[in-house]
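Why do we bother with a discrete structure alphabet at all? Because it lets us treat a fold like text: something you can write down, compare, and reason about line by line. To make this less abstract, here is a complete entry for Hydantoinase/oxoprolinase N-terminal domain-containing protein. Read it the way you would read a sentence in a foreign language you are learning: slowly, and without expecting to understand everything at once.
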Amino acid sequence: VFWSVNIEDVKPQHGFLVGIDTGGTFTDAVVCDSRTGAVAFKTKVPTNHDDLGACVSTALGNVIDGSRLSAEDIGLVSISTTLATNAIVEGAGRPAGLITIGFDETAIDRGGLRSALGEDPVISLRGGHSSHGLEVNELDLDALRTSVLDIEHRVDAFAVVGAFSVRNSDHERAAEDIIRQISTKPVTCSYELSEQLNGPKRAVTALLNARLIALTDGLLTAVEESMDHLGLTAPLMVMRGDGSLVSASFVRQRPIETILSGPAASALGSVHLAGIDDAIVADIGGTTTDVAVLVDGQAEADIRGAVVGGNATMINALRVHTEGIGGDSHVQNSPLNTPELSIGPRRVVPLVVAGESHAGLKEMLETQSKAPVARETDGMYLWLRDGGSAWTPRSAADHHVMDALSSEPSGLPYDQVIDSGLHKNAANRLLAVGVLGMAGFTPTDAMHVLGKDTRYETNAAELGAGLLARQSDRFGVRLAKDPIAISDQVYRSVAMKLAMAILAATFDYDDLPAAEVAGPLMTEALSRSATQRTGTLSVHVGVESPLVAVGAPAALYFPEVARLLRTDLIIPDHSEVANAVGAATGNVRLTTRVTVTAPRRGLFRVHSATEPKTFYELSGAQEFAEGAAREELGNKMALAGAETF
């Protein structure tokens, strides 16, 4: 039996809210009027992934100065951040020691725990409890002290997980006390992060949280110092992956709860800007597009837990579908596949952008355009990124690539650097870790050729489109007759992929089989919508809810997507900063759970944060459980920053 309570915090008394979002390309900041919800000022600064704190501080300073508000006018500063998500995906967290209590030797091979551990040390101890919260074995405290002293110098944090600790947390809390007597390094207990069973998966969640604590503290400290410099005394809040806000002190202890906060902020900001509660929200960026279905202003949480970087966690996050396609997705010829154009998931710098800072790029495009034979690497350009020369090569192939580019600071054509499969693999690795940069033809370039995007000079895009158009399909036929034709193909291919991503999200929401999205009837229906072709058979597919599209490129692609899906399109004002608006307008919202089990007829046990309590009447157990839930929720809400609730 479970009792859950959801309570929302009241809004701050001051008139304006600041929201900040650290995206892959830009860090956005907005000032919103808390009484009307209107955006009073907005700004964008380039995101530096090596120093997110500096990006957030710059954006905060710009938005305060630009809005001409005083520090006293600001009632709340809240951020959504990619820090936790990126650190897990890139394996950039700090080393942490895992202490397991009461698990058998096979537990490490379940729930993805062995993969998540990597080279981090593990301490396995006797102890643990049964599913009814009864102690199975006494906790071996002496072994714990000795083992912690042995590994303390190798780690920056500790994670503790006990068998059935969600039914009785005594052993986890005792282990935490011992570790704190020995070390000043932070400790994460798994029972504080999830009330669910499945010890190995809970261990993964606790371990990842421990690795993120120092990184998150660094970001929050930088923001707090910036706020102090600006004279801001408003609370600092952070958006969680479920779309709720919590205080900086809460996140310092539980940083893993901020994974996927960007998509959550986007979903909430989109419906706020659009002024509707029921919609399909699609947020397109440079690398990916996130899709969520919202009903009554809220997106459904994924009860399976968020999966990040291949790690399955027990963290609640909104049910968001991500497609690896955006304005900066690399477009290449793929003659052995259907369709021939491959778009994404790799992100590259658009030719129109790279051409402004890399002198050799335009010369390369012109030279390749005059060559008698087209090559699959035409239009691709490499360079060594700032700081890349300090990276230590791991192989001879790495040395080859880096040495070639070190001699030409502005970069070189891809085929002058890569002349073997080993070099290609090395370049892919170096691109993945951020040592190299690469330019190539993208949907952004295609939109410039078609005149739909006019931010940059178009010559580089036109040359790149011409190089792609003259490549051959599997039958040896040109992909397109000219740059405009190939750019139109790219535009329509992107729209088709986005439509398929939206259908996948709606299929999931309606509990329909996901495999059917790519089935022949669905594909045929979208194809007929795209070409306005008819036949004897009438085949149609669409969505009932309106489509709210946000992100800087939204207006370029989603009119066609809405036409394909036979629905209304809303692109609200300020859609390019929807994530920051979502961060600014969120609420504090927490849930707690107290479990009552019945080991036998007439016996009931209440499992809260302390030792289980036994009752012989269900009514007494329920009354105690509800009181324990209220007390626990009150403590959580206070830590999360809710002054009243």
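What the structure line is telling us, in plain words: The longest helix spans residues 199-230. Residues 326 and 486 are 18 Å apart (CA to CA).
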